[in-house]
Amino acid sequence: MFALRKPVFTSRFLSTVAKAMNDHGIVPDVLKDAPDNLIQVSYPNDVVVKLGNELTPTQVKERPSVLWEANANSFYTLCMTDPDAPSRAEPTFREWHHWLVGNIPGKQVPLGDVLSDYIGSGPPEGTGLHRYVFLVFQQNGKIAFDEPRLPNNSGDKRGCFSIAKFAEKYKLELIAGNFYQAQYDDYVPILYKQLGE
């Protein structure tokens, strides 16, 4: 009897995710270990997140659609976080989380509990490229999160966050990730007005 082997495409593909996260310093800046699986993240106008590609704040201002391999009977947590706040050289607010949704049934993000509503990228002028990291964690079951619910018209309570500590607190298992990079463009002042800054 022969054991089934994973196709070469899959093993190469999985290592690509971890390699990109290691190459871009997401390990260790955000995570101790990178996931092997990819989250598909797409914005309107066919803008797709591709393991570190550069996008603009204008391109990512709307909430994206997010897909990953999910069990329909399980619950998941999705996070988007920026470890480079206010800059990669001086990340004094590491991490600034942009989006946090828990209790997602299967991969149905709109049915999850929004803990922090989506805010697009807003890197300050002159701070270079920021990394915006999407992570999906599998939960052990439905969770009664004791986190504040944060709207998308304020930046309060979003800085100095740690998705690794959050995952440890709620016993979440990291299963997938993706990320893009962005720097200041002329949409950023509009976003700051939305946040009351």
UniProtKB/TrEMBL annotation:
<dbReference type="InterPro" id="IPR035810">
    <property type="entry name" value="PEBP_euk"/>
</dbReference>
<dbReference type="InterPro" id="IPR008914">
    <property type="entry name" value="PEBP"/>
</dbReference>
<protein>
    <submittedName>
        <fullName>Protein D3-like isoform X1</fullName>
    </submittedName>
</protein>
<dbReference type="Pfam" id="PF01161">
    <property type="entry name" value="PBP"/>
</dbReference>
<dbReference type="InterPro" id="IPR036610">
    <property type="entry name" value="PEBP-like_sf"/>
</dbReference>
